[in-house]
Amino acid sequence: MKIAINARVLNERKGGPARYTYNILKELARTDLRNTYYILLYDSVDFDFEMPGNFKVIVYKIKSKIIFDYFIIPYFTRRYKIDVSIFPKNTFSPLVAGKKIPFFNDIVYFEKLGFREFKFFDNLHHKIMIPVAGRLSYINLSISEYTAKRMTELLNIPPDRIRVILLGIEKSFRKIKNIAYLDRVSKKYGLRFPFFFYAGSLSPRKNMKNVILAFNKIKDMTGHRIYFTAGDSWRDEEIFRLIEENGLSERIIRLGFISDEELAAMYNLADCYLYPSIYEGFGLPILEAQACGCPVITSNVTSCPEVAGEGAAIVDPYNVDEIAGAMLKMTTDKRYRNRMIKKGYKNAAGYSWEKTTLVLKKILDGIES
Predict the structure, then answer these.
(1) Residues 206, 127: one domain?
(2) For residue 71, what is the DSSP state?
(3) Do 146 and 235 belong to one domain?
(4) Domain holding 42: CATH number?
(5) 27 and 83 share a domain?
(6) Is residue 276 domain-shared with residue 202, that is, in the same domain?
């Protein structure tokens, strides 16, 4: 079969869709030498794995996502008679030829969460096109049981047209024994110990506001700092204002962008990973932290408890006192912390990109047969 993958997420900022697209491609390149894959991009990507002869990277130098998704992809699928097209980010043009398989990362656009997370046209586009994708797809891939459930409840997609495809973890996320390397990362960013850690955006759903308010309650009971990696986003002014207003500029510090290797080091160096998110389609950082031996605090809503299993402190993300209590317990109760680390290792060991890709391969094999 001829299979096209809209891989433009690899040209954009790092995030869950880019991470799983890259790792699924890596596994497919290792295990599938029969089908022909066309990887469609709008800029070149440095792949750290060998592409076999049946993998073809196609680059169209067009920066507009709308043109790429709604003109280039349909043209390509029709011009080259593509059998199956895979879309890592929910939507696709109805003009795409062949069978269409979208990944549903979440359907937050249809949830009533009480805050405006996305810009107007982004929100409008997804509210229109996600239901279209759900109707026109060959099969819909959901990255968690929670998202699959909400797809049925909010979009009326029948359960038999949904397949759950749980994500995995790169082997680079592990306990690092190279103390010299950890020391270099620590010195590079001027880290002061001990500290909590968060990696991700400052989107309202990530709940950084309540993390700050919780930390403010315990700041005099602990010597910890919070380091976070978020880059600039369109609604982060409130977060920085809150840090400033509470006199926490020396205790809550943004690192900015760090590499994946440094991310693993930060998980290793941190006392605890903070992830009391209000809404997640999966929650990949939970597993990454667990695999590195970093205990996790996460929320009791959406997919977070599903992904975390028993290897995390589970809190109500709207309850600042509960978040503060979990932060204090994780840093003062060594027996509890060690138990969370042990359970986290066990939970993370059940996830791999091999398992993720096997689900996709079974679907593709069913099409071919």
Answers:
(1) no
(2) I
(3) no
(4) 3.40.50.2000
(5) yes
(6) yes
pTM (2 d.p.):
0.94
Whether residues 235 and 91 share a domain: the answer is no
Same domain, 72 and 138: yes
| Bridge partners, residue 141, by sequence | 103, 163
- Beta strands, E only, 161-276: 162-164, 195-198, 225-228, 252-254, 272-275
pLDDT at 146: 97
Please tell me the predicted confidence (pLDDT) of residue 232: 66
* Angstrom distance (rounded) from CA 364 to CA 159: 19
Q: In whole angstroms, what is the distance from residue 69 CA to residue 350 CA?
A: 34
Domain identity same for 116 and 133: yes
Let me know: does 260 contact 170? Beta carbons within 8 Å.
yes
Shared domain check, 318 and 193: yes
What DSSP element (H or E) covers 212? helix 208-218
How does strand 225-228 pair with strand 252-254?
parallel
CA atoms of 291 and 301, how far apart (whole Å): 22
Question: Which range of residues forms the domain containing residue 289?
Answer: 179-348
Residue 158 is given by DSSP the state -
Q: Which of 235, 221, 331, 333 is nearest to 274 (CA)?
A: 331
Q: Which residues of the chain have pLDDT under 70?
A: 13-14, 116-117, 231-235, 369
Cis peptide preceding 295, ω within 30 of 0:
no
Tally of domains within the chain: 2
304 φ/ψ angles, rounded to the nearest 5 degrees: -60, -50
Contact by Cβ (8 Å): 348, 291: yes
